[in-house]
Amino acid sequence: MTTPKKLFIKTYGCQMNVYDSERMAEALGGQGYVETRSPDDADMILLNTCHIREKAAEKIYSELGRYKGLKADKPDLKIGVAGCVAQAEGQEIMRRQPMVDLVVGPQSYHRLPEMEAKTRAGEKALDTDFPEEDKFEKLKGRPKAQRGPTAFLTVQEGCDKFCAFCVVPYTRGAEVSRPVDRILTEARDLVERGVREITLLGQNVNAYHGAGPDGSDYTLAKLIWDLDKVDGLERIRFTTSHPNDMTDDLIEAHGTCPKLMPYLHLPVQSGSDRILKRMNRSHTADSYLRLIERIRAARPDILMSGDFIVGFPEETEADFQATLDLVEEVTYGYAYSFKYSTRPGTPAAERAQVDPAEADDRLQRLQALITRQQRDIQNSMVGRTVNVLFEKPGRLPGQMGGKSEYLHAVHVADAPVGIGDIAAVRIVDAAANSLAGVIA
Ligand code: SAH
Ligand code: SF4
Ligand code: F3S
Q1: CA–CA dist 43, 46 (Å, integer)
Q2: For residues 94 and 92, what is the distance between their CA atoms, to the nearest angstrom?
Q3: Residues flanking ligand 2, CB < 6 Å
Q4: pLDDT lower than 50: segments of the chain
Q5: Can you name the residues that pair with 205 across neighbouring β-strands?
Q6: Are both 32 and 113 inside the same structural domain?
Q7: pTM greater than 0.70 (yes/no)
Q8: Do residues 67 and 75 touch, judged by C-beta distance below 8 A?
Q9: Does residue 97 form part of some domain?
Q10: Can you give the CATH number for the domain in which 21 is found?
């Protein structure tokens, strides 16, 4: 028997990259690779990269620099760059770091086995096409290994929205939805292997319009209702959504679908209509607020999450104030805020940039407000009973940790539960990043 080759994958960026890394490991599994946790004993290192902000992209080059010594000691080591930096910078990566053997864009992963063989023959391999065929369908060979209780499942990829700041439409290409039957097959397979909660993924997941079994166009809500019927699947989530694609049936599902969890990540980016227009977001602050009213009418306890960009070109103090006002009005359980980062090739890169010190200051003020809201909501959970899906042992002996339906991290001391169990838990204390509870 030949000893298996070892694969080290490091994943950056969004959940879609996490999902893709799992698929790539499976595809290379067919080539005799097993995963390792350390780059030191790897025969192949694969960085699955993110291009969303400048810092994320630049990190890749410093990370590659760290592997120089390894490669010198072990000339057979192959180094690959996958993901959105690979798509955006392609050949440039090999120019800047000649030790890179392989560059593969997010739509070409099913070609990895042939590309790996090419590198073994001493050649460089580069593929940043947007092929027609379904990469997920071709990336077969999923080993039937047992899984943890939660999993991601990509149902939609790409984006046609072209927000003026964003690279995703260029790195991931146009919106494509996977057919319903393939998603259901994959979901049933995950459940058989121990998964109890599935998060449906897409860069614009609520724009999902995959073909149903009879060829008819599905909506995300229709897909969720089909998944609701899968025995053994207990929880369904989805991310990331765009406000313009929150269809009536999806809002209604939040009120009526028993397995759909009361949590919604719905980025708005800014509270200023002037800036939203310049961002090409095609919604206003008011239309977003009215939308949230309708969602909360359907599911009053839903926990809202969002994304914000501060310091977008030409943002004034008054524009920023409008963002703070919007946050005050919504009250977020979670929110992610970023300082605008100039991305080459996007329309906003050409415009008058905000003073970086001013942008830093706004970011701090926004984050202070968001942290306060987050803490208030966590504190308000004390005394309430939530359902927790237990995922792993906690830090202390006997402790078990999991997530509530609102995605709060909850831990319970000496809990008579196992991984994958769902139990009612009464919250007794709130810390900065987690809640403590007792089995109810
Ligand atoms: N498809 C999702 C997520 C896009 S990327 C959506 O439309 O919401 C995740 C977040 O990164 C975005 O919501 C945005 O807040 C942030 N982001 C994207 N481009 C950025 C840039 N150039 N500078 C700073 N933040 C950015
Ligand atoms: Fe980027 Fe906008 Fe598309 Fe989201 S909707 S991925 S922010 S272009
Ligand atoms: Fe980053 Fe690409 Fe995801 S740019 S956020 S890894 S889609």
Answers
A1: 10
A2: 6
A3: 159, 161-163, 166, 168-169, 203-204, 242
A4: none
A5: none
A6: yes
A7: yes
A8: no
A9: yes
A10: 3.40.50.12160
